[in-house]
């Protein structure tokens, strides 16, 4: 059995959770991701920046009703990386 290398960016539990959420909803507010992952704001911010640096997510900062709003969107590169990660995991399962 050949073991495919797993993407180290996605292999982190929190980053994988973020990507799983974004794959299903395409984009989400920072507060939504914070609530769904039970992460601290600081940790979520660090992990989102790692995903952004890898090109997996796009982060848009704006204002809504005079309050700061951060929108996170999965990129096509992120979708491809997530798909490859899932396929690599599936290859570990017996057929």
Output the strand order for the largest sheet. Answer: 1-3-2
Please state the average pLDDT score: 94
| Helix-and-strand structural type | alpha+beta
Structural shape? elongated
What share of residues are in beta strands? Answer: 15-25%
Largest sheet: 3 strands, antiparallel
Low-confidence stretches: none
Distance between the termini: 11 Å
**String of helices and strands:** HEHHEEH
User: Total number of β-strand segments?
Assistant: 3
Range of helix content: 40-55%
Radius of gyration, taken over Cα atoms and rounded to an integer in Å? 14 Å
How large is the count of helical segments? 4
Write the layout of secondary structure elements.
Blueprint: H1 13-25, E1 27-29, H2 30-37, H3 41-53, E2 57-64, E3 67-74, H4 76-90
Antiparallel strand pairs: 1-3, 2-3
Summarize the model shown.
With 95 residues, this protein is of the alpha+beta class.
What do you see in this structure?
A 3-stranded antiparallel β-sheet has the order 1-3-2. With 95 residues, it is of the alpha+beta class. A hairpin with a 2-residue loop joins β2 (57-64) and β3 (67-74). It is elongated and about 55 Å long. Helix content is 52%, strand content 20%. It is built from 4 helices and 3 strands, in the order αβααββα. The model has no long low-confidence stretch (mean pLDDT 94).
């Amino acid at each position: 059995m050949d073991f495919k290398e797993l993407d180290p960016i996605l292999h982190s539990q929190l980053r994988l959770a973020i990507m799983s959420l974004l794959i299903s909803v395409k984009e989400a507010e920072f507060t939504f991701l914070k609530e769904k992952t039970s992460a601290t704001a600081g940790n979520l911010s660090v992990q989102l920046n790692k995903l952004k640096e890898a090109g997996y997510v796009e982060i848009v900062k704006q204002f809504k009703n005079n309050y700061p709003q951060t929108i996170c969107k999965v990129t096509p590169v992120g979708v491809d990386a997530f798909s490859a990660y899932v396929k690599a995991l599936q290859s570990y399962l017996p057929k």
